[in-house]
Amino acid sequence: MTASNSVSATPWSDTDGQKPLVELRGVTKKFGDVTAVDNIDLDIYAGELFCLLGGSGCGKSTLLRMLAGFESLNSGSIKIDGVDMSDVPAYDRPTNMMFQSYALFPHMSVAKNIAFGLQQDRVPKNDIADRVQDILKLVELQDYGKRKPSQLSGGQRQRVALARALVKQPKLLLLDEPLAALDKKLRKHTQFELANIQEKVGVTFVVVTHDQEEAMTLSSRMAVMDAGRLQQIGTPTEVYEFPESRFVADFIGSANIFEGRVTEDGADHVRVQTDVCDVFIDHGQSVKEGGKIWVALRPEKIHITKSDTPVTGENQVSGVVDDIGYLGETSIYKILLPNDQIIDVTAPNQTRPMNRQHLITWEDKVNISWEPSSAMLLTS
Amino acid sequence: MRKLNDNWRLITVAIPFAWLLIFFLAPFFIVAKISLAELAIASPPFTQMIEWADSGIMTIRIVFDNFIYIFEDDLYRNTYLNSLKISVTSTLICLLFGYPIAYAIVRSGPVAKPILLFCIILPFWTSFLLRVYAWMGLLADQGTINNILIAIGVIDEPIRMLYTEFAVYIGIVYTYMPFMILPLYANMEKLDGSLNEAAADLGSRPTNTFFKVTLPLTIPGIVAGCLLVFIPATGEYVIPDLLGGGNVQMIGRVLFNEFSRNSDWPVAAAVAIVLLFLLVLPIMVFQYFQGRSSGQG
Q1: Distance between CA A188 and CA A195 in Å, rounded?
Q2: How far is CA B48 from CA A344, B30, B261, in A?
Q3: Which residues of A touch B212 (CB under 8 A)?
Q4: Residues of B with CB under 8 A from a CB of A
Q5: What total of structural domains would you count in chain A?
Q6: Is residue A4 part of a domain?
Q7: pLDDT in tens, B16-37
Q8: Which CATH class is domain B73-295?
Q9: pLDDT tens per residue across span A211-255
Q10: ipTM, interface predicted TM-score of the complex
């Protein structure tokens, strides 16, 4: 990655000197009685690949359409590059959008589809031809300019849609589920390609997706959305390793959640009492002593050992294997704990089972434990 | 199993072929045969094409006089041209009004849309003939429209509307408008709404988007609608007869007069054959367009 020296590579982490490219303040959109987007504040910085992640109906597409100018705001404001967008129609905005359905013009060739936006800007004819060729090269479709969209495969259409949206060099590129229509294998490949293209052209991307893996792979920062609100904003690592709420912990990856009470709140540690065991966390976190709290544990961060001697104590508990899901590279163990709660534990299958018999199997007594740094505290 | 499949395929192909043969091709050949005969005092009133003499010799008699007569007589030529003029103009008027109506229906909300569509189809519940008679009542010198205009003082004496070309236009445009709107509606309904948004997103203003995106993509609907209006309007008989009276010559009326009043079946048949070829031409153009657009996928 080559970031120029004048601009910080991660402007969002050092917000003092940086002016955000997109500023959303109190953005609200209602459809009848339903509040699709509820009082959202958000800054997106130039050069970011920002993902809006959420389930269907969470308001992420509406938010994207408001940035593009297809939906009006009930209240709040959107500024792009310092300019208030409330009176700017879609055709005058410095944004371009890649539609989920691609919305390629079926009566125009690939080259004409891409040239359409440039013609609206009255770019000279020769320049149009050059820029169309350049962008076709970028998406590796140089020889497809004369084809009609109906003569292309799904993956090729996706790249034409991307090229058409990119060719005008918008300040902000909006992508609505850009990979949803592709099959799984192509999608994985395209995720990296999309990120590479974004890096190459340097345009700010806002991607809407319901696929958490896609969001994690693509984004420099992401926002998890639910019921019209932003639940958490951060880098993929921040959101995954430091979720703030049960919703986020459970939505991104999976999490075993125990309810508990803070018994110790030190500067360098927190202790929580749960009905499974006492949980010790080796770093400080601002929580209220005695208050109700939730502890979340990622399945892959739990160690599992087969053992007939039960254990009690901090960060460890005994259980019985209730069910096993064998996925090849890993296995998911459903462990029944003494308090009747069943938790997920994943473990890599690092040794090949002898006699086709796995080391840990149904009804085995096991001990599970985790590092003091692994448990995540959730305040809501 | 394969045998069964083959039989089914044969049946599915044979049914439309049989239909066309019985209801289109056979009548066409009968009419064509009559058009090549001569008027005769007989029943039916024309000479037979094939006659068997007592000696067993077969004579085939084909006369082209009827066609020569039609092409040489100004009456027929002018009537054909007048019919084409009226049907082309009516088609264009239908398109001019039908296109925005279809567009508005497509864009209307989920409550309004079925109601509007129902209103378009509603006239079919009443007999076509009855509706044309109703227009006579509206357009007559002592009719509803003139009476109202006189009552509110806009005019002093009735405007002559019935038995003019204007009345024929009113009748044709009114009658055939649904045939323009419905194919256009079906075409527009299929269009992906995000295409308009994509055009706007790329910097195109609404008017430009209409001419560059919407209009080109609705050409199949325009062609279908225009043919559905143009073809029956050209041969229209009832409307020019009832609303145009003797003042508006259209080929349908001439054909009817030849057939029933003059009892000249051969000339009437020749008029019909010429009309058929006049109408086959636009159908072939339509087929060409359809083939091209389906080739695009």
Answers
A1: 11
A2: 94, 11, 22
A3: 116
A4: 192, 194-195, 197-205, 208, 212-213, 216-217, 296-297
A5: 2
A6: no
A7: 999 999 998 999 999 999 999 8
A8: mainly alpha
A9: 888 898 889 999 999 989 999 999 999 999 998 889 999 888 888
A10: 0.80
